[in-house]
Amino acid sequence: MAKPPCKDLYQVRTLAYYLAQGGIYNDLITHLTQLRRQPQHRGMASPAALLNEACYHLDYSQTLPPEEAAAHIAKLPEIIRDLIQRMQEKKKQQASITLQAIIDHILAHKQYQFVNQIINMLKDLIGRTCTEEEYQQILAVEQKVMDNSAMEIHNHNHMSNCNVLTGSVYNPQFPTHEQ
């Protein structure tokens, strides 16, 4: 069994801390702020205090066996249970990045130039561990995106550390081949 977290570490967190964390915390702060505006929730604790409490209890429940964790969370006030549930759902959503989700993202962008690094990453990283069918699916998606991409010409005239002058030079002091 893991060591329970120290509650003091959670009590010093401020709203600025949660805003800096971003992600689900910004969504929860917005939700809590909207709740506080409703007449039935007047006097509700600040978003930071509620998030401190929810984060502590979520981390504490993860140190308990599943049955005890569920019982511990069930004893908490409704607003804290709601915050914990929202945080757990967000973690599950973040963990659900699958091959199909990545392929859908690639197909949504349509231009090869915007997704070529993702395709190469898939081929390099999971190309060694995926099934032949999944690898062929990646190659098919790459070909489809390449076929749908518009042809573009990129001309990069970048010169450095040389004596090349681009364009016309009209200066009597400058030597020409005609002299």
Detail the topology: elements first, then pairings.
Blueprint (H helix, E strand, L loop, with lengths): L6 H5 L3 H7 L2 H14 L9 H15 L4 H9 L3 H17 L4 H11 L2 H14 L6 H17 L31
Helix pairs in contact: 2-3, 4-5, 4-6, 7-9, 8-9
Task: Characterise the protein shown here.
With 179 residues, this protein is mostly helical. Helix content is 61%, strand content 0%. The chain is built from 9 helices and no strands. It has helices spanning 7-11, 15-21, 24-37, 47-61, 66-74, 78-94, 99-109, 112-125, 132-148. The longest helix has 17 residues, at 78-94. The protein is elongated. The termini are far apart.
Overall mean pLDDT score? 84
CA(first)-CA(last) distance:
90 Å
Largest sheet descriptor = none
Radius of gyration: 29 Å
Low-confidence stretches: none
**How many DSSP H or I helices?**
9
Q: How many strand elements?
A: 0
Along the chain, the helix and strand elements come as HHHHHHHHH
What overall geometry do the principal axes of the alpha carbons give?
A: elongated
Tell me the helix content.
55-70%
Structural class: mainly alpha
Query: Strand content of the residues, in percent?
Result: under 5%
Structure summarized in a few sentences:
By secondary structure, this protein is mainly α. Helix content is 61%, strand content 0%.
Q: What descriptive keywords fit this protein?
A:
179 residues; mainly alpha; elongated
